[in-house]
Amino acid sequence: MSGRTDTIASWSAKLLYHVVKFAAVPLTHAMCRPHLSGAAHVPRTGPAILAANHLSVIDSFLLPALLPRHVTFAAKNEYFSGNPVSSWFMRLGGSLPTDRESARAAQEMLDAAAGLLERGELFGIHPEGTRSPDGRLYRGKVGVAWLALKTGAPVLPVALSGTDKVMPFGARVPRPATVGIRIGEPLRFDGDHRDARERRRVTDEVMAAIQRLSGQEYVPEYASGHKPSHGTS
């Protein structure tokens, strides 16, 4: 009986996702005026990891709203419990909440993401772990590599631009602006997901691919160690 209940709940969640997405697409185009390129790199079926730079709270919403396939993104818990606009965006996009302060919670999120990929779904992640404080691209955390090496799923580098104009740091409501989304060719990796050096190597390769697409200046440090610039807020 529980299996049937789980199936009905899963079907209901997917139906709600697509209903909300249908309603959100016109709003996305009106507010963000998105220019999407490279969508053909996203497989029609099967798993893939969308690894994107991170400029704004709305980043995790755009790809789920614009791509035809269901994309589940990881997003920090604060996006769900703080600003009601960001909370609405996250729930609309079907994001997966995660506690950045807890190593156990972070691993549980990765385990859940691996389960999605093993079921042939799409998973989105921001390897920087938090928004860029100044528009530059920061060192990636190794969760993306752990997922790629454990599941064998290809990684699609994604470069977002202009989203920090729609929702800058400190903004309470979105502002109209033009947003760019570039999706690169899939990257495939071999190696042991338990090997720290392999995880670091793969993560650095993913970040280099994102940087080539975005043109951002690269900073070989974690973004979490830098305070945000509020010049555009």
CATH classification, class level: Alpha Beta
Instruction: Give the CA-CA distance, first to last residue.
Output: 52 Å
CATH architecture grouping:
3-Layer(aba) Sandwich
Strand order of the largest sheet: 1-8-7-2-5-3-4
CATH superfamily: Glycerol-3-phosphate (1)-acyltransferase
- The count of helical stretches stands at 8
Number of strands: 9
- What percent strand? 15-25%
Coarse structural class = alpha/beta
**H/E element sequence:** HEEHEHHEHEEHEHEHE
How would a textbook summarize the main sheet?
A: 7 strands, mixed
Helix content: 40-55%
Overall, the morphology is: globular
Q: Which value, in Å, is the CA radius of gyration?
A: 17 Å
CATH topology: Glycerol-3-phosphate (1)-acyltransferase
Describe the structure.
The structure is a single chain. The protein has helices spanning 2-32, 59-66, 78-81, 84-92, 103-118, 143-151, 163-166, 196-214; strands spanning 35-37, 48-52, 71-76, 96-98, 122-125, 137-138, 155-161, 180-183, 218-219. It is of the alpha/beta class and 233 residues long. The chain has one domain: Glycerol-3-phosphate (1)-acyltransferase (3-Layer(aba) Sandwich). The strands form 2 sheets. A 7-stranded mixed sheet has the order 1-8-7-2-5-3-4, sandwiched between helices. Helix 1 packs across helix 2 and helix 5 runs parallel beside helix 6 (143-151). The longest helix is centred in the N-terminal third of the chain and has 31 residues, at 2-32. The termini are far apart. The model is unreliable at 5-10 (pLDDT under 50).
